[in-house]
Design brief:
With 183 residues, this protein is of the alpha+beta class. It has 2 domains: 87 residues, Double Stranded RNA Binding Domain, CATH 3.30.160; 79 residues, Ribosomal Protein S5, domain 2 (2-Layer Sandwich). Helices cover 34% and strands 32% of the residues. The strands form 2 sheets. A 4-stranded antiparallel β-sheet has the order 1-2-3-4. It has a 4-stranded mixed β-sheet with strand order 5-6-8-7. Strand 7, helix 3 and strand 8 form a beta-alpha-beta unit. It is elongated.
Length: 183
């Protein structure tokens, strides 16, 4: 009981009711995969955990992070920090992607296709986490080859980063958007 009142007095002195927790509410954080890994040492096996976390703002920024530690919460915390540091912005047009793309990463191959409003996210686990965190609302996807979570997440992010809008293409070519679309 005394501990709770002490913590409450610290909170009131700080001027907030939760510290850094309020700051993180603006991000969508998804744990994609947690793996138990073992290191063989003289006395037997030493277990640790590896976690893949995807973090995004739901408005086009997304990052992925991998963390490894002896305990699951610590691995997730490390992965979350790395995901936040590695955030990059991706091109979205009306809640979907500007064009179709096919990307390889390792043995994973991903296909992303834009979809009309109301379609939703048609994607599997690892890919779905990246797309939801990025703020994509309508998309059709397919994973070909390996479904290894590490490679699928990295391939999806690579595919999202290859997206270019019509404005960017027009600017690069020195033309207007209407000139490009008339083809």
């Amino acid at each position: 009981m005394a501990e709770k009142t002490y913590q409450a007095s610290l909170d009131s002195r700080r001027g907030d009711k939760g510290g850094p927790a309020e700051e993180e509410d603006k991000f969508i954080e998804k744990v994609v995969y947690i793996n138990r890994v073992a290191k063989v040492v003289k006395g037997g096996r030493r277990f640790s955990f590896a976690a893949i976390v995807v973090k995004g703002d739901g408005e086009g920024s997304v990052g992925i992070g991998v963390g490894k530690a002896r305990e699951v919460p610590e691995a997730m915390r490390k992965a979350s920090e790395r995901a936040e540091r590695s955030m990059t912005h991706v091109q979205l047009v009306n809640g979907t992607i500007p064009h179709e793309t096919f990307v390889k990463f390792g043995a994973a191959r991903v296909v992303l296709r834009p979809a009309g409003p109301g379609t939703g996210i048609i994607a599997g686990g690892a890919m779905r986490a990246v797309l939801e965190a990025a703020g994509v609302q309508n998309i059709l996807t397919k994973v070909i080859g390996t479904t290894n979570a590490h490679n699928v997440v990295k391939a999806t992010l690579k595919a999202l980063l290859t997206m270019t809008s019509a404005d960017q293409v027009a600017q690069r070519r020195g033309k207007s958007v209407e000139e490009i679309r008339t083809r």
